[in-house]
Design a protein that fits this description.
Layout (H helix, E strand, L loop, with lengths): L32 E2 L12 E9 L3 E8 L4 E8 L5 H14 L13 E9 L2 E8 L2 E3 L10 H20 L2 E2 L8 E4 L8 H7 L5 E3 L15 E3 L4 H8 L8 E3 L6 E2 L16 H8 L10 H17 L11 H11 L7 H5 L2 H4 L5 H16 L5 H14 L10 H5 L9
Antiparallel strand pairs: 1-2, 2-3, 3-4, 4-6, 5-6, 7-9, 8-13, 9-12, 10-11
């Protein structure tokens, strides 16, 4: 059913109503309870839905109360046609949950439960995790330099944890980072519900009465304003506890990846060149690809803007990568010579220094002082190397002088 089949349109503020169909979203209402034990009566089930946290093309995410543990959790319910990605994410998160010898706290999203539910639209994966605030909602530009450095260090610690346990992420960027909300532990359910933004609901009312089936929820809900609530309850001056999210692309190190969908900021040169020049949909990638993505994300955390703002995965991205690093790799030469508009790319040491001076100016506002900015530029230049074999490991990044005064 298309949008014209409904009396009310949410104008993109919620998931699409027409996706409540076979293979699509699971209909959920505020107050319902979910549980892996499908045979339980509703009052005995475990996770009570309190508000919506967000939505995407393949899932809705809800704030819930674990009534058995008396804690708040995030409940992600996938579409029935979401494929193997969600099962893979659960597998990866379970791997970390059972890992021994990790630093505490972990910087990977904590999985508490994983099960499937069957509804009118099919079988859906349910992932129960900690509640985290998307870093993009935090307002990084308003954060002081020490907060930004601590966030960058948390990202590096999380990637080090992943790599230590043989996992590569494949899509590390700012949109896949969250901040833990430990203050929630001390909140009462009534206070949380009252303090979150009021429910904004749109009745799901098809024009054709025959379409009002069990596939549809009674209404759709706009996500709550979690950032405003977090600003109210968070401990002032506390460093961020960054968590890595979204393991739908993740693989074990030895595993060959399938078709890779990643953001431009997470697209390492070896991936970008394979996709643009060689037209490969499933390029090889590994731990060094994550290191490139980490450098791009650190830049965005500190500068407040993307290293590759406004670019797609195309020739322009390759061109910028060359300008940042100063050389066209041997494997790229044939393709470069076949593109007249790329042949003139200036890669002299002077041009690279000039490019990084411009980038340094963008980083300065997010750094403690000039010396701090210079150390960061040196770190990023070590990481942003076109040849994956020449990049530092994530553990070498963690030992870099720029991180030595991080909290």
């Amino acid at each position: 059913m298309d949008l014209e089949g409904f009396h009310f349109d949410t104008m993109g503020t919620t998931e699409e109503q027409e996706r409540y169909c076979s293979g699509g979203f699971h209909p959920i209402a505020i107050g319902v309870m979910l549980d892996p034990e499908a045979g339980l009566a509703p009052p005995e089930r475990r996770y009570r839905i309190l508000h919506k946290l967000g939505f995407g093309s393949y899932a809705t995410v809800w704030l819930a109360r674990d009534v058995r543990a008396s804690t708040f959790v995030a409940v992600k319910v996938t579409t029935a046609d979401s494929g193997a990605a969600e099962g893979r994410e659960a597998k990866m998160l379970e791997k970390f949950a059972g890992a021994q010898g990790d630093t505490i706290p972990t910087h990977v999203l904590q999985l508490h439960d994983h099960f499937t539910i069957t509804g009118p639209n099919g079988v859906h994966h349910v992932l129960v995790t900690d509640v985290v605030l998307p870093v993009l909602s935090v307002g990084i530009r308003s954060m002081p330099p020490d907060w930004r450095k601590a966030a960058a260090r948390g990202l590096v610690l999380g990637v080090a944890q992943m790599h230590r346990h043989g996992v590569k992420h494949g899509d590390l960027h700012l949109g896949n980072l969250g901040c833990a909300m430990p203050e929630l532990v001390n909140q009462e359910e009534d206070d949380v519900v009252q303090d979150l933004s009021p429910y904004e609901m749109t009745v799901v009312l098809p024009r054709d009465p025959r379409a009002q089936t069990a596939s549809l929820p009674p209404y759709v809900v706009m996500p709550c304003n979690l950032a405003t609530y977090w600003a109210r309850i968070r401990s002032s001056g506390s460093p961020p506890d960054v968590k890595i999210l979204d393991f739908g692309n993740a693989r074990e190190m030895h595993e060959r990846a399938g078709e890779l969908q990643c953001a431009v900021e997470a697209c390492a040169p070896e991936i970008a060149f394979a996709r643009v020049a060689l037209k490969e949909v499933s390029p090889e990638w590994g731990a060094p690809s994550d290191v490139w993505a980490v450098s791009s994300t650190i830049y965005e955390i500190v500068a407040g803007s993307s290293l590759f703002y406004g670019m797609g995965i195309a020739d322009g991205l390759l061109n910028t990568m060359v300008k940042l690093t100063g050389a066209v790799p041997p494997a790229w030469q044939s393709y470069w010579q076949s593109r007249p508009y790329l042949q003139g790319t200036e890669v002299s040491s002077y041009a690279v220094a000039e490019e990084w001076e411009r980038r340094r100016a963008s980083l300065r506002a997010g750094c403690a002082d000039e010396a701090d900015a210079e150390l960061l530029v040196q770190l990023l230049r070590r990481m942003l190397v076109l040849d994956p074999e020449e990049r530092p490991t994530i553990n070498e990044v963690l030992e870099d002088p720029w991180f030595q005064d991080a909290k």
